[in-house]
Amino acid sequence: MPDDRTGWVTSSDIGDLTEALSTGASRADKTPQRIEEGRVERVADGDTITVITPNQTKLHIRMLGINALETPKGTKFPGQPYAPEAEVYLKRLVEGKRVTVKVYGVDRYERFLSTIYLDGRILTWR
Fold first, then answer.
1. In a domain, 6, yes or no
2. Distance, CA of 61 to CA of 43 (rounded, Å)
């Protein structure tokens, strides 16, 4: 976490990342399927954003190589520890800002698996 606290990861989190990596989409030598620019309209959680392109197309993005903990989903799922902090952190980084999106594929929820660039630098967790 940004404040040096630690969180936890479950095997199901690793499985989700494995699915993304199995597409080969994370390989640095792979050419993106498309590159878009736009403004971050919404941060859904610590690894999912919505970007609006200049022609008003909404791109639902799942950040490739990032697997943040899950935020609460109503009464069915209370969320995981530190998930709200991950969401707030990503909001501070990108919400309302212009980004470049390199799309490498689509996940099972029809979100674009993408790397996100802000001011020419790739977003990643430290």
1. no
2. 10
Nearest CA to 13 out of 58, 40, 42, 47 is that of 47
pLDDT tens-digit readout, 86-118 = 889 899 999 999 999 999 999 999 999 999 999
Instruction: For residue 22, give every residue at least 6 positions away whose Cβ sits within 8 Å of its Cβ, in sequence order, or none.
Output: none
CB 86, CB 2: distance < 8 Å: no
CATH number (domain holding residue 77): 2.40.50.90
Range of the domain at 103: 11-120
Total tally of structural domains belonging to the chain:
1
Higher pLDDT residue, 43 or 15? 43
Token couple for 102: 């390199």
Q: Give the length of the chain.
A: 126
Q: Express each pLDDT in 32-67 by its tens digit.
A: 999 999 999 999 988 999 999 999 999 999 999 888
Q: How far apart are CA 52 and CA 123, in angstroms?
A: 18
- Looking at the whole model, is its pTM more than 0.85? no
